[in-house]
Design goal:
0% strand
């Protein structure tokens, strides 16, 4: 079921989101990546996500929590960046000693 939800979420994402996710999943096994399938099935990545606050009562908070394609893409870049920094801190270098070829993601 999660795989189907993940596939449904991908078509509403920006091309930059899909490209970054594809590159990340090519470098790391999906189950052990920054964005495993079960995370892709979360409602905040859906185009129809409704924030948990009322627009009339908290307009600024509602606007901040509203999901947009650009916010979802920035979320993905942050998640991948945190994952790569965590790997670096543990000393794991999937690209060998010369990490100059590490894909750069905005964080």
């Amino acid at each position: 079921m999660e795989e189907r939800s993940c596939i449904m979420m991908l078509h509403v994402q920006t091309p930059g989101f899909r490209e970054a996710l594809t590159k990340h999943w090519q470098c790391f096994p999906v189950a052990h990546s920054a964005v495993p399938v079960h995370l892709m099935a979360k409602p905040f990545l859906a185009d129809t996500f409704e924030p948990p606050v009322k627009k009339a009562a908290f307009p600024r908070m509602y606007q901040a929590l509203t999901s947009t394609p650009q916010k979802r893409e920035m979320w993905l870049h942050r998640a991948i960046g945190k994952y790569l920094r965590g790997l670096k801190e543990t000393g794991f270098e999937p690209w060998g000693k010369t990490s100059l070829n590490v894909p750069r993601f905005h964080s």
